[in-house]
Here is the input.
Amino acid sequence: RHNSRRRFEPIYPLIPAVKKLIQKAEILLEALPFIKKFYGKTFVIKYGGNAMVSETLKDNFALDIVMMKYIGINPVIVHGGGPQIDKTLKALGIQSQFFEGQRVTNKETIDVVEMVLGGKVNKEIVSLINRHGGNAVGITGKDGDLIMAKRYKKGKKQSPETDRPEIIDLGLVGEITQVNPQILETLDKNEFVPVIAPIGKGKDGETLNINADFVAAQIASALKAEKLILMTDTEGVKNKSGKLQSGLTKKEVITMIKEKVIKDGMLPKANCCLDALKAGVHKTHIVDGRIQHALLLEIFTEDGIGTQIVEKKTDLTTIIPHS
Here is the structure.
């Protein structure tokens, strides 16, 4: 009887706590339309920058991927690893050289690149996702002939000796010629999360180092993914005044490139988004990987946190804003 009376005591002191719970429920309900819309869809995510260095952000990323998989989205991850490669090369006494942002890669360097990307970095990401309850598998572009490539000879410069332009040979740097997604489709059918190191296979079987943004864009194109998401160390695309643009059309991006508003490190990312849209990817996003749970905030909230780049204006004003 005493316990029975206690059970029916006034509950008013619990109301503040209940309010907090209701707020949590409202957050979940805000995500519901996005969960319904993206169920069964493929998202290709380029993972790199500071999000791969900070222990907190690494945990956040792994948790985001696991949550996406459990609610029915099929994430495909392409990772970078430039800082990790630099650190290893330095420890081995090998000097790094770059031309217009691309690493000049000789035989000695490519061995280190393959070891760091395909071994250390890839397996760390896989292990972290699996530790948080996921089911990830690490591969490189050489596995299953996923990424076929040719040597990428970049740009021209004026030779002082001949006074003629000459091609810059970047060595074992690759340009993608073909993506064979069968291995990814097999992994997807078996509910695995692919984690891909950006290494390609040349015509003669040689290993080629490829920019991770380019790999992500080409894989998204081959899979006709719903989204391509590039995680970076900046807020997103900004206008002339330095204001973040939450949504841009393909036409607007091309104009910003011509006017050199989009330049430097943002230029290749913007071009990757344009290439993916042209190939049939529905939406592309450039998001700040320095923000905790950046993926969830961009995908499952109405406002998002980065820049989405789409084919036409109507894609920016769908029933679900910023979806």
Notes: The radius of gyration is 23 Å. The first strand starts at residue 42 and ends at 47.
